[in-house]
Specification:
The structure is a homodimer. The first copy, chain A, has about 160 residues and is α+β, with helices and mostly antiparallel strands. Helix content of chain A is about 30%, strand content about 35%. The complex binds threonine (2 copies). One threonine (THR) sits at the interface of chains A and B.
Chain lengths: ~160, ~160
């Protein structure tokens, strides 16, 4: 695959808020987001995957660190389950950006390999047509950015928190 | 939020392959993707979220239906755990597309609400700077597309399988 990567970025302002036991039935994601919208929280990434054996699933959002507790309160109240919400206030978002990533295989292989060699654990993965994003702990964020800059032979950039 | 949505799409060619017990330690995502790249599988979405109490996490990819079994074999062999791979061959990907989604809250609220009213279960959520993507079962895909077309007052489009 002809790698079309044009940049690597680090956003050190992210927090992850996860509802740990959302029933995997129609309507729950709608309920949660109505509550988040009413609380006026800006959401960056939304990630949900397969449900567990119990029939529940985990629904995560990433938000600016300053909004994390407000988002957690609004989201958990929406599913009547205040006990099972995980707030991870100190996360870093690392992104590899490139136009025309027809498939993510090549970029992901190099990105995940670079973070592995740097001994950095990947806490979340989310992809789009122009990016592969991962979350790591905040501590290793800058080391991760440097590792990605070397792996893709690119200058590195600290992103302003926001879209993507 | 001024909704900047320009389109809704349905891709009926998707399958989801999930490794159910990937150790959440540095290096495993790199191993899995090296194997997937060697098998020559085109990956569309990659989703991983928080780990479970046991310390494992679930790592999912979405691939063209024809590649699902090959991807499952390559990925599970990479983590020496052939038993715990879930292949869901018949999924539909529904997308709401719009430039400049600074935050996903407004679009997500309307999208998830429309699917809830149509009684359609959301099996995966992934967002990008220009899209909110969900996976549903293949069966309700077209009904989902129609519901989203109404919710965003837009013509609907069947997407060719590929990036995004
Ligand atoms: C978990 C949540 O996404 C649920 N499956 C829904 O459709 O709302
Ligand atoms: C699960 C996988 O992403 C692991 N955390 C890694 O860093 O490779």
């Amino acid at each position: 695959e002809d790698l079309v990567v044009s940049g690597v970025e680090l956003d050190e302002e992210q927090a992850r808020v996860t509802l740990l036991n959302v029933p995997d039935r129609p309507g729950y994601a709608g309920k949660v987001f109505r509550a988040i919208a009413q609380a006026g929280v800006n959401v960056d990434m939304i990630v949900q995957n397969v449900r567990s054996a119990s029939g529940d699933t985990r629904l995560s959002i990433t938000v600016p660190r300053a909004d994390a507790l407000r988002a957690a309160e609004a989201a958990s109240a929406a599913v009547d389950d205040p006990g099972h919400v995980l707030v991870e206030p100190n996360m870093a978002k690392l992104s590899v950006v490139g136009i025309g990533m027809r498939t993510h295989t090549g970029v992901a292989t190099r990105m995940f390999g670079a973070l592995a060699e740097a001994g950095i654990n990947i806490a979340l993965i989310n992809t789009s047509e122009v990016r592969v994003n991962v979350l790591t702990d905040l501590g290793p964020g800058k080391a991760g950015l440097a590792a990605l800059g070397r792996a893709f032979d690119l200058p590195t950039r600290l992103a302003a928190s926001g879209s993507g």
